[in-house]
Amino acid sequence: MSPLALLLVPFQLFPPASASLASHVGTALAALAVRGAAAPYSQAEAWARHGIALKGSPAPGPPFRVGTPGRPNGSSDGGAFTRRSSRADTVPPYLAFPEPGLDDPAAYEGYQTRVYQDARGNAFQVYLKGSSGRVVNLWADAANESVGFTVRDSGGKPAELAWGSAGAAVTGSRGARTRSVSYGLELPSSVTIGLFLLGSMRVERDFQYAGRDSLPLGTTAFPQAELAELIDHLAKLKGPERARHLALLGAKTVDALRARLAPTIGLTPSSPLSATRRGGQGVRTDTTWTVEVEQVSFDGKSHLWLSLEGDTRETVPTLAGNVVTIRRPAGGPVHVTVGVTTDAPALAPLTRGEIFNDEFLRFAAQVGADTAHPLRARRLEREVRGVELLCYREKLMAGLPNFATYFGRDMLMTALLMQPVWAPAMSEHVVGSALGKLSPAGDVSHEEALGGQAIRENAAEYNRLVSAGQLARARALLGHLAATRENYVMVDDDFQLPVVAARYLSDSRVPADRKRRFLQSEEHLKRLLSNLAFVARKAAPYTRSPVATNLVSFPRAPDGLGRWISASWRDSRAGYGGGRFAMDVNVIWVPHALEAVGTILDALQQLGVTPVIREQPLATFARDRAALERAVAAWKGAERHFRVSLTPDEVTKRVAARLAWLPAAEREYWEGVLRREGSARDTLRFLALSLDGSGRPIPIVNTDPAMALLLDSLGRARILELVGPTLLPYPVGLFVDDLGPVTANDAYAGRDVWEAFRRDAYHSPTVVWGRDVNALLAGLARQLRAGDVGAQHAAPLRDAVRRISDAVDQSGLRHAELWSYTIDHGRLVPSRYGTSSDVQLWSLTDLAVQYLLNHPTP
User: Which residues of the chain register pLDDT less than 70?
Assistant: First the structure.
């Protein structure tokens, strides 16, 4: 078998299994056989034969129950659970974190997760959050669903959570209406379970952001005000009109609709004999108790089910309201089988052979065959699997668990970084997905709202329409309450799309006929020209009069306080230090988008595609290339507005003031770093993160200039000018040993900025982003491979690559979306950032970094 063919069959990611695990796998297979659910020579058997071990210890005592989790049959409003005979397969996790040898478990602070592929190849993630006792099941499908609950011990504290099975059972098929996944958990001897929340992952995300996972277990998990208000509006309508609105939601009464705001929960202590509807085979199940939780979507068109099962010979369950208590009178751990079922549509996953080009697959096969560096092979395979879990024909997802939807920026940025390793057709998926969601004005969708989140947002629109007396429009909206909604507030992605599209249309690897077919399908050409026209319009004011206040601005925040929305990648409230004009948008993306306009117009001409362009100033650019060149030149001068220059004395003074403001432990640590590394000896020059509303620089050192290394071939002096501040030790620059380059340094800004970042740390000086690391390393690798860097000039670039790579590796969190640190007894201790994604699209661009740094230059 060739190396390429070998890679197309995923190799073993986990080390060899222990004897106890092999025994457990055999038990699981036996359980499957008894329940009539196992396929001949299933994945489970292949798994057992090949001895792939998984994290977590097998549960002693009763076997892990797998096979046929609950599914619906009956009314859409809380009908009884039923089961049917369905083929099941026991599978190992496709990914698991933290993984000994690859991750530092201590940095995860009690968090652990596994990601499976369901029967349709969609990602299903389970994470156990030890700090809160929260168990969350994410289904990364067409509805972005989640099922969560909280477990507490007999003292009311977060329960200690552990895996109770080595894998999971998956059921469903292409023709089946439902898909199910079940797995085992191990809990303390007495636990209470509550705060059940079934619906959109966005709702689970908001639930945790609001800190509601610490509320009493019987509390309504997350009241959705938009839905409650909709019901109130509907109840006030006159009888005939109210009946029409209810009918559109499949409900007969207002009370029936209100019942959908919370799940129904039932306990079946045991069943003497399984009838057809509960097992299909007449198998005795008198030793099994079941808690069944069902959530009907607000529009009545989809369902989520959760089941908790245990053995009546060992454990005693009780149900009081919406809180479940499970006790093991004899002591010892409680073993529970968790089953999750959905009837939402699945997505169509892409295979690794469709995602990656042949050169990269050969490179990856060579890494996998290198027995001298097994950890490197495991890391690379894990990242390849991560990409597979996020790539579907319909879209590329941003990350698991919190962002399992389309995000325009994440997808477009990843396309730029992954171009060396992706198959050419991947650009079609990216560009086509973005064009399909384009607004009528031509701007790119930042994020989609699906399923339950779409219902929330559409409900808010319904409420507005009813309040305005527009009942016909409100009624029409109810018929499509779960229709996908798009968010167009971000700015950077509008200018990234032309850059990615230009690279696709100018890619010599893609046949001309294929490009023509792509442009002619689904109105892609029309939509692309709409985006180019949008870019040209937005750039026009500064082209005419290049003053700072004519740059591309962030939109105003709707709070009436004169704030600006952080509408580029640093999209937290404090992300741009309160600025109006972002450096990355105006210095990097707008000039390159204008250059891409020219590239696309040339490519269309070469393809014999001659659209009629009427909108100005794009029509002028198409007719008069000199006008476009003047616009590009004007925008390339925008950098001057962001330049900051500080003398050594200014640097020393401002850094000292910033450190004096810190808590004692942090201050002492960073003062020690300054003593060791020395204070600034030269003038510090950098590009400010943003400009304020008057066009003045907000002097925050940042990692964003690294993007220029990805987009242009630069000379050595220019490269070092751009990345130099990143490599200076923090708190003067950005670089932190054993951690990596922090994303920003606000020491040179005012105290208001310091305090804003302290309140909102997501893009603050305490955080490293994997996106930044990969952009830096890929950009440096690209410059080293450009062919015009001599050995002497290459030395500082290679040293920069080594320093960044070593620091990030030492953190133990290289794969993460972002990570932070704490100061503990004078030591800097890396830690996983609380809302960090486990599998993040632009963090997985490390694959391109590894390829560029380790693959011979073609």
Answer: 1-87, 173-174, 271-285, 786-792, 856-858
**Which has the closest alpha carbon to 839: 818, 817, 820?**
817
Instruction: Classify the phi-psi angles of 331: left when phi > 0, otherwise alpha if psi is within -120 to 50, otherwise beta.
Output: left
Cα gap 604→49, rounded to integer Å: 54
- Helix, strand, or coil (residue 617): coil
What distance in Å separates the CA atoms of residue 340 and residue 338, rounded to the nearest whole number? 7
Name the residue type at position 278.
R
Give the separation between CA 70 and CA 143, rounded to whole angstroms: 19
> Which of 161, 122, 175, 164 has the alpha carbon at shortest distance from 339?
164
Per-residue pLDDT, 50: 29
Q: What is the pLDDT of residues 632-643, one digit of tens each?
A: 999 999 999 999
Determine the 3-state secondary structure of 355 from DSSP. helix
What's the confidence (pLDDT) of residue 413?
A: 96
Query: CA 709, CA 147: separation in Å to the nearest integer?
Result: 42
Residue type, 818: L
3 state DSSP class of 99: coil
Q: Where are the alpha helices (DSSP H) in 330-373?
A: 352-355, 358-368
Q: Which amino acid is at 361?
A: L
Tokens 């109770």 sit on residue: 164
* Token reading at 16: 């060899």
State residue 104's pLDDT score.
83
CB 674 within 8 A of CB 662: no
Rg of the chain in Å (alpha carbons)? 28
Beta strands in 3-122 (DSSP E): 71-72, 81-82, 88-91, 95-97, 111-117
Its sign, for the CA torsion 346, 351, 356, 360, is: positive
Report the Cα–Cα distance between both ends of the chain, in Å, rounded: 25
Confidence at residue 816, expressed as pLDDT on a 0 to 100 scale: 84
CB 194 within 8 A of CB 201: no
The rounded distance, in Å, linking the Cα atoms of 370 and 403 is: 34
Q: Tell me, what amino acid is at 684?
A: L
Amino acid at 12: Q
Among candidate residues 256, 257, 266, the one with its CA nearest the CA of residue 306: 266
Unique residue bearing structure tokens 């057992």: 48
**Using an 8 Å Cβ cutoff, are 406 and 368 in contact?**
no
Contact 528/519 with Cβ under 8 angstroms?
yes
Supply 137's token pair. Answer: 């099941």
CB 586 within 8 A of CB 552: yes
* C-alpha dist (Å) from residue 70 to 166, 331, 422: 21, 29, 40
Q: What pTM value is reported for the model?
A: 0.86
Instruction: Please identify which residue in the block is written with the tokens 């050969």.
Output: 362
Residue type, 775: A
634 near 542, Cβ under 8 Å? Answer: yes
pLDDT at 749: 98
What number of other Cβ atoms are within 10 A of residue 805's Cβ?
18
Q: Which residues pair with 162 in a beta bridge?
A: 186
Q: Which residue has the tokens 């895996």?
A: 163
Distances (CA, A) of 245 to 253, 295, 442: 10, 21, 34
Distances in Å between the alpha carbon of 772 and those of 37, 744, 821, 844? 47, 11, 17, 12
Q: How far apart are the C-alpha atoms of 555 and 562, rounded to whole Å?
A: 10
